[in-house]
Design goal:
This protein has 223 residues and is α+β, with helices and mostly antiparallel strands. The protein has 2 domains: 108 residues, Winged helix-like DNA-binding domain superfamily/Winged helix DNA-binding domain (Arc Repressor Mutant, subunit A, Orthogonal Bundle); 101 residues. It is 51% helix and 16% strand. It has 9 helices and 5 strands. α1 crosses α5, α6 crosses α7 and α7 runs antiparallel to α8. The radius of gyration is 20 Å and the shape is elongated. The chain starts with a helix and ends with a helix.
Length: 223
């Protein structure tokens, strides 16, 4: 399977996870709704991930041509006053992605069957003196069992200690609260807890920690 085909499934899984997190009804699949930020998805897979901008554009084009996702919001063409050339219609500003009925059904068909081995997720980035890696400013990765709650809690606790002293007991309770919120797949509920805990952390630490949370929430949703 090509890199682009993998990326197509990953982007679709993100859009499905967002749709379920919002608890939207079937009407939203054909009427449309404000979905996942296109900038954030591109940043996840290009800026912070292993894919190129070309890979991302082709994967998105494939999803749109298959009618699995749509973009928005829609806006009317603005014609120059007095111009003899007039455009009638609307166009997408391409600010967000949202799921369609075809995309929802396709995601159900492509959902992998449960495996006997524990699912793991790889999350990588450049981190200084990380307790989960060795060396300075090296490209490190986390191989994490995202269905093992204690392992997720331990990983986040270590990440929280990256930029300061070891977490206090109150902070450790906060990590448990964060994992419990993410367990429901409700990232909207988890985000303010995450922001409170990691407000003083470096941006690279925040990116890795949030990657752990989103991967954990997605697995809990069966994605």
């Amino acid at each position: 399977m090509s890199t682009i085909d993998d990326l197509v499934k990953q982007i679709l899984a993100d859009v499905v996870a967002d749709f379920r997190m919002r608890s939207l009804g079937s009407d939203a699949l054909y009427e449309g709704y404000v979905g996942v930020s296109l900038v954030e998805v591109e940043r996840k897979y290009c800026t912070d991930g292993p894919h190129s901008k070309v890979d991302f554009d082709l994967a998105l084009k494939q999803l749109e041509e298959a009618k699995f996702v749509e973009t928005g919001p829609m806006a009317a063409y603005e014609n120059t006053p007095g111009s003899q050339l007039v455009f009638i219609g609307t166009f997408s500003k391409r600010e967000f992605l949202y799921l369609t009925e075809k995309g929802y059904k396709a995601a159900q068909r492509s959902t992998p069957k449960p495996s006997s081995s524990a699912p793991h997720v790889h999350i990588s980035g450049n981190f200084h003196q990380s307790p989960i890696g060795i060396g300075n400013a090296v490209n490190q990765s986390v191989n994490l069992n995202v269905q093992n709650d204690p392992e997720v809690i331990e990983c986040l606790t270590k990440l929280l200690a990256l930029d300061g002293a070891s977490p206090r007991e109150q902070t450790e309770r906060g990590i448990v609260e964060l994992v419990d919120a993410a367990k429901t797949g409700d990232l909207g509920k988890a985000r303010p807890i995450f922001q409170r805990l990691f407000s003083a952390a470096k941006e690279t630490t925040k990116q890795l920690a949030w990657g752990v949370i989103t991967a954990y929430a997605s697995k809990k949703l069966g994605l």
